Amino acid sequence: MAANRPKKPEQRQPDETTVSGPERIQKLLARAGVGSRREVESWIEAGRLSINGNPVEPGQKVTVDDGIELDGKRLDIAAGAEVVRRVLIYNKPEGEVTTRRDPEGRPTVFDSLPRLRDHRWIAIGRLDINTTGLVLFTTDGELANRLMHPSRQIDREYAVRVFGEVDEAMIKRLSEGVLLDDGMAKFSDISEAGGKGINQWFHVTLLEGRNREVRRLWESQGVRVSRLKRVRYGPIFLPSRLTVGKWEELDQKAVDSLSKAVDLKPVDIPAKTPSEQKTLDRKRRKQAGAGPRKSGGARWQVDSAGPSTGRKSSGKPPAKSGKR
User: Fold this and answer.
1) Cβ-contact 138, 85 below 8 angstroms
2) pLDDT digits (tens, 9 = 90+) for 193-246
3) Distance from first CA to last CA of the chain, Å, rounded?
4) How far is the C-alpha of 218 from the C-alpha of 210, rounded, in Å?
5) Strand pairing of 183-185 and 178-180?
6) 3-state secondary structure of 232
7) In contact, 247 and 89? CB cutoff 8 Å
8) Residues recognised as catalytic
9) Angle, in degrees to the nearest 10, between helices 141-148 and 252-261
């Protein structure tokens, strides 16, 4: 009987991918891959942007049908007509800077990423040149902005090796708050992760992403960070299979998890064209044959599970076991 037939599983209801109506110029240009919101704001302040021949006002709203120019040159913003939400994870080596172009000619995190035709990768947060580990990239400017905004309180977890004596009083101060040059800062969580003597491993968590904050917090206590690696950003862990200098694209489930963390409705990842898939496959084969990139020191990995405790270390981060 029809009444006894099994019900079909409910399908996910993706958000509308087509954008309608005017929106702030920073948001539109970021989604179109022209520049980050911060870059667009700096262009507005410098008077470099115009809309339909008129200077841009702060907070002005536009549509993809408007004529937007940067330094007198018309911008192609057609890609801003729809939300394309793709996300990459990248295992950053030492020696790379988290910027699109470096005036000193140093390698950047963007050098190894797959190229896009109508969009561009936006880095979600930065790591300094000597810090390794997880960097997220997305094509969706709104997702990037929400994941980085301090009001969202998205936690970032780091594996850190500290050189110097660490006692309970120091741990308490770092957990309760320390006054730095740019205001109060603290770790929302600190857990021991192995080591002995004056070389100890810790896992620390921050709810913001100020410049060199992990290093500055430890240095405020008279100790030095000798190794630092980001192992988690929000719900996304750096998997042990992803070796230094390599990237991989997140699947639909992981992208939806990131979207949910910042109150964005899910958007289906667009299907790749045969040409794009061929390019990505070639890039992966090239990555697989290249081996890890030199990073100025020993190569080391932190798994995606929880940290072990009370384990001795000889310079490498402790293995992690169990689920977090």
Assistant:
1) yes
2) 887 778 899 999 999 888 899 999 999 999 999 999 999 999 999 999 999 999
3) 46
4) 14
5) antiparallel
6) strand
7) yes
8) 128
9) 50
